[in-house]
From TrEMBL:
<dbReference type="InterPro" id="IPR013783">
    <property type="entry name" value="Ig-like_fold"/>
</dbReference>
<dbReference type="InterPro" id="IPR003961">
    <property type="entry name" value="FN3_dom"/>
</dbReference>
<dbReference type="InterPro" id="IPR036116">
    <property type="entry name" value="FN3_sf"/>
</dbReference>
<protein>
    <submittedName>
        <fullName>INLR1 protein</fullName>
    </submittedName>
</protein>
<feature type="domain" description="Fibronectin type-III">
    <location>
        <begin position="8"/>
        <end position="103"/>
    </location>
</feature>
<dbReference type="Pfam" id="PF09294">
    <property type="entry name" value="Interfer-bind"/>
</dbReference>
<dbReference type="GO" id="GO:0005886">
    <property type="term" value="C:plasma membrane"/>
</dbReference>
<dbReference type="Pfam" id="PF01108">
    <property type="entry name" value="Tissue_fac"/>
</dbReference>
<dbReference type="GO" id="GO:0004896">
    <property type="term" value="F:cytokine receptor activity"/>
</dbReference>
<dbReference type="InterPro" id="IPR015373">
    <property type="entry name" value="Interferon/interleukin_rcp_dom"/>
</dbReference>
<dbReference type="InterPro" id="IPR050650">
    <property type="entry name" value="Type-II_Cytokine-TF_Rcpt"/>
</dbReference>
Length: 204
C-alpha cells in the first residue's frame, strides 16, 4: 500500500527569537531521512481557520519563520506541523499560543562608528524581518572610557537615528555598547551588544 505509520513531529514550539516568530520541532521517532513538513497557523480572532504558510509547505528543515506570514502582529497565534513522506502523513501537532507584540525577543543592535575629527557618528542596525520594520524600535547607547565604570547614557533613540558625540574632550580608549528597546505591554529590551572600542585623540 506504500503507507507507513509516520510518527508526528515532537517538541513543537513557537518561539520568539531575534525579532522573529519561529516554529521549531524535532523529527518524530524513526522518521525517514527524506521526510518533509508542512506548517499552518491560526489566530485567536479566527479560531479553527488554519492558514497556509506557502514557504513552509513540504520543507525538509525542522523550523519555519512565521513572522511575515502573520496577518496580525497583535493577536495571539499558534501553529501546527505535520510530517509528510510519499503518500503517508502524520497527525498534526500544535504549538502553544503567542503573539509577536508582547512576546517578541530582541537581539542586540549592531553598531557602526564613523570617526571624524571632532565627533563620532554612531548608528545602530537591527536584524529585523521586513514586515516589522515600521514598528517603533529604539535603542539605548552607552559610552565609557575603557576600564571605567562611569557610563554616559544616550537613551531612547529611534532605530534610524544617528547619535553624534563631540569627542574634542575625550582622550584615550572609549567603548560603545547598545541595546534594542521595544514598548509593548511593558518595556522590553535586548542584552547590550559586545563593546566596540576606539582610540580617540591619541597622541602616540
Amino acid at each position: 500500500s506504500g503507507h507507513v505509520q509516520l510518527l508526528p513531529p515532537q517538541n513543537v514550539t513557537l518561539l520568539s527569537k531575534d525579532f522573529a516568530m519561529i516554529l521549531t520541532w524535532a523529527p518524530g521517532e524513526g522518521s525517514p531521512p527524506d521526510v518533509t513538513y508542512t506548517v499552518r497557523y491560526e489566530s485567536q480572532d479566527r479560531l479553527d481557520k488554519w492558514m497556509k504558510v506557502p514557504h513552509c509547505k513540504n520543507i525538509p528543515r525542522s523550523f519555519c519563520n512565521l513572522t511575515c506570514a502573520l496577518s496580525n502582529l497583535y493577536v495571539k497565534v499558534r501553529a501546527r506541523v505535520k510530517a509528510v513522506w510519499g503518500r503517508s502523513q502524520s497527525p498534526w501537532v500544535k504549538s502553544q499560543f503567542k503573539d509577536y507584540y508582547s512576546d517578541v525577543e530582541l537581539a542586540p543592535p549592531v553598531l557602526t562608528l564613523n570617526v571624524g575629527d571632532n565627533s563620532i557618528h554612531v548608528t545602530a542596525s537591527f536584524p529585523l524581518p521586513t514586515c516589522v520594520e515600521n514598528l517603533t524600535w529604539k535603542y539605548d547607547l552607552h559610552l565609557w572610557e575603557a576600564g571605567s565604570e562611569d557610563k554616559k547614557k544616550y537613551e531612547g533613540y529611534f532605530r534610524k537615528d544617528t547619535v553624534i558625540i563631540n569627542t574634542t574632550a575625550l582622550r584615550g580608549n572609549y567603548c560603545f555598547s547598545a541595546r534594542a528597546l521595544y514598548e509593548s505591554i511593558e518595556l522590553k529590551h535586548s542584552e547590550f551588544s559586545q563593546p566596540l572600542c576606539v582610540l580617540l585623540n591619541y597622541r602616540g
